[in-house]
């Protein structure tokens, strides 16, 4: 029998070997063919998850540990299917269950890229409006409801999803929330213009010890993120760190 092959929607096909595709296909088949009820599959998630997904979770756990003593909300720029947003939310619920001021705010169009700058297509991938469209807002809101059911202070909402073009919604958010301080800014827009806008607007809201994390700097498929960093912060102004077990997550401690 030939082993199944597959890739998650977020994967760039050219960067994955046939062995990777086989591993993904086997993971999908194991999950679908298991006789376990869905809740038991979730409870035993390391059995079904991929090494890639667990490595990303571990990287974000280590980022979160570093900002635990830092005041401020967490901003996720690019929600997609919610893995990052709900990682921060779950970690906050576990490690600091009474810190209701640690809001997790996710910005996304929930309809894919709103526009693409010429800078974004100077790499190896041709992007266009509508690309990288993840879960609908309504589905993510149901997951927020599930998350709140396990929170100690569930009567005080701490997850907010902001829909729309970030180049417009970010300033509106700050105007409506002038008290905002940011402890962690996670940049996963993939694109030049919204990443640049996030750095322009949010860096002045970040105290010493806060973290700016990047999902696609030094990435030939999405060169816009590096360009935005270069223009707003500069490459040599801070140490840009990474994790030995995860190839893409990079970060700066301010």
TrEMBL record:
Positions in coiled-coil regions: none
Keyword vocabulary terms for this entry: Methyltransferase, Transferase
Gene Ontology MF: a single term: methyltransferase activity
Superkingdom of origin organism: Bacteria
Keyword field contains ATP-binding: no
Pfam families the record matches: TylF
GO biological process terms held by the UniProt record: methylation
InterPro entries membership: SAM-dependent_MTases_sf, TylF_MeTrfase
Protein known as: dTDP-6-deoxy-L-hexose 3-O-methyltransferase
Organism: Microvirgula aerodenitrificans
């Amino acid at each position: 029998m030939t082993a199944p092959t597959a890739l998650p929607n977020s994967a760039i096909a050219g960067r994955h070997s046939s062995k990777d595709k086989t591993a993904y296909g086997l993971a999908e088949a194991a999950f679908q063919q298991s006789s376990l009820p869905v809740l038991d599959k979730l409870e035993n998630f390391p059995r079904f998850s991929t090494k890639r997904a667990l490595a990303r979770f571990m990287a974000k756990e280590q980022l979160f540990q570093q900002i635990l003593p830092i005041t401020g909300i967490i901003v996720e720029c690019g929600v997609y299917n919610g893995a990052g947003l709900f990682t921060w939310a779950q970690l906050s619920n576990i490690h600091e269950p009474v810190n209701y001021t640690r809001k997790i705010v996710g910005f996304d169009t929930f309809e894919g890229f709103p526009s693409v700058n010429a800078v974004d297509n100077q790499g190896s991938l041709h992007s266009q409006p509508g690309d990288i469209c993840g879960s609908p807002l309504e589905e993510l809101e149901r997951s927020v409801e599930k998350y709140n059911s396990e929170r100690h202070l569930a009567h005080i909402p701490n997850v907010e999803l902001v829909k729309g073009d970030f180049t417009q919604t970010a300033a509106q958010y700050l105007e409506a929330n002038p008290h905002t301080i940011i402890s962690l800014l996670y940049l996963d827009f993939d694109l030049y213009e919204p990443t640049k806008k996030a750095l322009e607007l949010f860096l002045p809201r970040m105290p010493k010890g806060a973290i700016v994390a990047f999902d696609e700097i030094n990435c030939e498929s999405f060169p816009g993120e590096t360009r935005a960093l270069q223009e707003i912060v500069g490459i040599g102004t801070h140490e840009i760190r990474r994790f030995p077990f995860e190839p893409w997550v990079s970060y700066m401690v301010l």
